[in-house]
Amino acid sequence: MSYTGEAFLGLMPELISTAFLIAVLMVGVFAERSAGLVASLAALGALVTFVGTAVLLFIGFEGEFFGGGYVVDGFALYFKLIVSGSAFFAVLAAARWSSGTGDAAEYLMLILSVVLGAMLLVSMRDLFGIFLALELATIPSYAMVAFDRRRRESAEGGMKYLITGVIASSILLYGMVLIYGVAGSAQLPDIARAFSGSLTPVALIGLVLLISGFAFKVSAAPFHFWTPDAYQGAPTSAAAFLSVAPKAAIFGVLLRILLEGMPGAAPVWTVVMAFLSIVTMFVGNLFALRQRNVRRMLAYSSVAHSGYILAAFAALQGDAVPTGVQAVMIYSAAYAVMNMGAFLVIDLAGEEVKGYNGLFRTRPGLAISMGVFMAALVGLPPLSGFFGKAWVLLAGAQSGSGLVYVVVGAVVVNSVLSVPYYFGIIRNMFFEEPSGGETAGEGGFAVEFSVYTLAAATVIFALIVGPLAALAQASGLL
Amino acid sequence: MITTVTIFIPLLGAILMLFMPEDERLVRRTAMVVAAAPLLLALYIYFAHGSDLGAAQLTQELDWIPSLDIGYRVGLDGLGFGMFFLTALLTLIAVVASWDIRENTRQYFVMLFLAELGMLGVFAAQDLILFYVFFEITLIPMYLMVGIWGDENRKPAAIKFFIYTFLGSTTMLAGFLALGVLAETFSIESLNAGGGLGRTAQIAIAAPILFGLLVKVPAVPLHSWLLDVYVSSPTSTNVVLSGILPKLGTYGLIKIALPLLPQGVEPFLPIVAALGVVNIVYGAFVAFLQPDLKALVAYSSIGTLGFILLGAASADPVGMNGAVLQQVTHGLYSALLFVLVGVIASRTGTRSISELGGLAARMPWAGGLLALGALAAMGLPGLAVFVSEFMSIMGGYTTFPLAGALASLGIIFSAMYLLYMLARVIFGPIEKPAYEEITDAGPLEMVAVVPLAVLLVLLGIVPGILIGIQQPAVEALVSVLGGG
After folding, report:
1. Residue B247 covered by a domain
2. How confident is the model at residue B454 (pLDDT cuts 50, 70, 90)?
């Protein structure tokens, strides 16, 4: 173990984002009237972090630091790529809105600290390190949700998010402590030794509490109550970013905990995941069907998509483990592009479903982009969401477990169940007459650029899914 | 390479349409040129390579997702070529017949070409995932075509169409993925004859795939989405909707379910044959009760699709040849009838059979061609549908004698309602004074229907020109099934 150049190289993405985080805050303090400069700096920070991560991935960097508690492998870098990439679009989307609040630097700094937390999270190999990184990623996100002082829902959403988040964190911590008590160590490899063979009751409780805590964080039902209020109240860029980036990282670290830390207990946690997944899918979709507000609809839709990803966790058994890991990785990337895009459209076209009437006549480019996002969220090929779902079904088919086949059936049924609400928007945009009242939001060029870029990414995902799958396969996690 | 070029010309056409100026005449002419290109290429393929389509020819293979052995694999064989050609032809005819699309013509053609991309792709795909991708690409354009340009009932019809077929195709996808992941490849060629899977696994995989395909056809208990969407669509959408889309289901049966899972589908074949007969008989009966001319044609179309199911389920060389041919002949006659119904409705302002009458006096050409189409639909010897239906029944009779016998009864039923319709609409006294003034089909409308009529007659007299092409591929298929 040496803290030489190698360690600095491996931690480059984290160091870059830390540097930019401080720079953004400093510039914000000393150059008060320079919102544009602050935003460009933050966007540059996200972009440089992204490029740095990509370089590490490209040269195939692998390494363990801090006594094996921190690992940089293909798996971690892949999720860091998703996090920093979505942060770039979040900053672009937030640029104009945040300069209007007068606190641009603070808001953008919060985005970068979530990035830092999420990037640390996927590299941690120690339960308490994981907890710290998770808090580093979530505490700024409470502030992001409550940041919009002009809207009362923002404070309300932030408050709900904060309270449930704190409860979730304590449950998670309790679970971790119990696991630590059983294993005598917080390091995942040590836990793996303790969690082989049959589980003691304490270990079982620890495991269930741990999964429940994470279920809160990824808004899996029945722990999803904060999601619609938080996403409705949050500034659009916050909802867009929080629904994809920290969530991807949390799914990533959960994979690492389960597969590196307790592979022996797989028969237990796959069953828990199977039920969690089925409930989450149905709750998300059934509630989304009733929404008239696009933010709330997308919030419930994100619950449903957590359910699809959890289905891949349920399939992590037998021959299906590598495919299941790939499913989570590919789904996270696919979801990041399509869901961010869908959220950002709200800034351009408003949050009422009716406001989308006739959008195809008035703003065809925006309508087509939104159509692409909706079709992708349904899972239509050749758009990104299709590949996520296809991998989940693949893993399910490979797992050879009866319960997982039921989960696969639920994925199929839920895909169909989700059609009416996603296509309700398409119907309004394409089939209805424009309602007259211009509800255009406070978008601006940067938001439009993000939406079109993400729409293009959703479409050409079909071309990059091959390399992405190869990357996922060689990721180093099993 | 030529296959890929043919498939993706419509995509270029769709992009071109997006950037066209809002000049109605220019847009239509350009669309016709774009639509003609794949047809010319398909004709070239017919004459240059038509004799050699036993296995997939003109193939191209590119890596797509190598870790799962999913590839961009296309090629043409005798099973798919007929429909590949028909897709190109009917798209051109749909462009010509789009006279009732008066608003947003450019966008309409964008949708039509995107749908054509998917349809051409399905009939050329040699990879399961690619097949599914093309299969689904057709959905959104068709949904929007019905939903934007259809009649007043279009919105519920469009979403119903979408949900039903999406349910079917997602179920089918689960089956495809299970098949591919267990056999460790998604190449249709390598998966031939089961890809090494045991009988139980094949049956478990065949069930969802067959369900998805039968919804798409639609086989009768799964057909409730069809009528609304057929009746609500504009004429030119109907051409594609009835001429090509159901064949995505039947072609999937012939190209994928049967050869890739021979042991898996075997227990289901009697059910498929029975569903075929149900389609034939039910379609004919319900068509008889329809007051609306378009609904009558729609049910007639459901009915004759049954012959494809029967012929394919027979696993007999004659029946299988009939099924493959029936896909094409069904497309020809149903497109012809839908266009003519559109022509008549645009003149008289109604599609109600009881309000029409004596049109032959004023519209000799349209009326005559409608009679030709109806006679073809009822399987009159000398017209193309007779050949394919007769072969399907023969094959069906060999394997399932009762089903074959009942199917031939279906021909009699269909003759009854079609002759009744002809007598009511075309012949007899002129129903309303207003009909004295109507004019016959114009030159553009004739351009849309005459090629279909000519092909119906031509294939009726010399069916060998198409059967000869599909024969080697059908024989290979039947030998996999162990029949014949």
Report:
1. no
2. very high
| B324 occurs within a structural domain | yes
A381–B133 C-beta distance less than 8 A: yes
- Structurally, chain B folds into a number of domains equal to 1
The answer to whether A431 contacts B170, with C-beta atoms less than 8 Å apart, is no
Other CB atoms within 10 Å distance of the CB of residue A303: 28
B144-172 tens-digit pLDDT:
999 989 888 888 899 999 999 999 999 99
Region B181-206: what's the mean pLDDT? 87
Amino acid A315: pLDDT: 94
Which residues of chain A are within 8 Å of residue B136 when distances are taken between CB atoms? 380-381, 386
Is A400 part of the contact surface with chain B (CB cutoff 8 Å)? no
Contacts of A387 (CB under 8 A, 6+ apart): A330, A334, A381, A461, A462, A465
Q: Which residues of B touch A423 (CB under 8 A)?
A: 143, 159, 162
Chain B contact set for A393 (CB, 8 A): 173-174, 177
Among B84, B87, B191, B80, smallest CA distance to B129 is for B191
Distance from CA of A3 to the nearest CA of B (A): 36
pLDDT beyond 90 at B278? yes
**Measured in Å, how far apart are chain A's first and last C-alpha atoms?**
24
Q: Domain for residue B101, yes or no? A: no
For residue B63, what is the nearest residue in chain A, using CA coordinates? A466
| Residue of A394, A404, A408 to mutate when probing chain B, most B C-beta within 10 A | A394
**Centroid of chain to Cα B242:** 6
Furthest CA-CA distance within chain B: 70
User: Among A366-380, A418-432, B46-60, B454-468, whose mean pLDDT is lowest?
Assistant: B46-60
Which of B451, B139, B446, B424 lies closest to B292, judged by CA?
B424
Residue A124 pairs with which residues in a beta bridge? Answer: A70
Interface of A with B in 421-460 (CB under 8 A): 423, 427, 430-431
Interatomic CA distance for residues A42 and A53, integer angstroms: 17
Q: Quick one: which H or E segment has residue B59?
A: strand B57-65
Stretch among A58-67, B175-184, B379-388 having the lowest mean pLDDT: A58-67
Contact B177 A382 (CB under 8 A): no
Residues of chain A positioned with their CB less than 8 A from the CB of B19: none
Task: Decide if A380 touches B, using CB distance below 8 A.
Answer: yes
Q: How far is A430 from chain B (nearest CA, A)?
A: 7
The whole-angstrom distance between residue A379's C-alpha and the CA centroid of its chain comes to: 18
> Does residue B168 belong to the interface with chain A, where contact is any CB pair within 8 Å?
no
Q: Which of B276, B74, B70 is nearest to B186 (CA)?
A: B70
Please give the full DSSP string across B151-207, using - where no structure is assigned. Answer: -TTHHHHHHHHHHHHHHHHHHHHHHHHHHHHHHT--BHHHHGGGTT--HHHHHHHHH
Nearest to B159 among A409, A420, A465 (CB): A420
CA B368/CA B427 separation, integer angstroms = 10
- Contact status of A406 with chain B (Cβ, < 8 Å): no
A12 CB-near residues (< 8 Å, 6+ apart): A52, A56
Evaluate whether residue B144 is within a structural domain.
no
Domain span at B432: 268-484
Task: Give the mutation candidate from B61, B69, B177 for the A interface (greatest A CB count, under 10 A).
Answer: B177
Which residues in chain A land under pLDDT 70?
1-4, 32, 436-443, 478
Nearest 5°: phi and psi at B62? -130, 145
- Contact indicator for B459, B387 with CB cutoff of 8 Å: yes
Burial of A201 from C-beta contacts in 10 A (0-12 / 13-18 / 19+):
exposed
pLDDT computed for residue A1 by the predictor? 46
**Chain-chain contact of B68 with A465 (C-beta, under 8 angstroms):** no
Contact A430 B158 (CB under 8 A): no
Mean per-residue pLDDT of chain B: 90
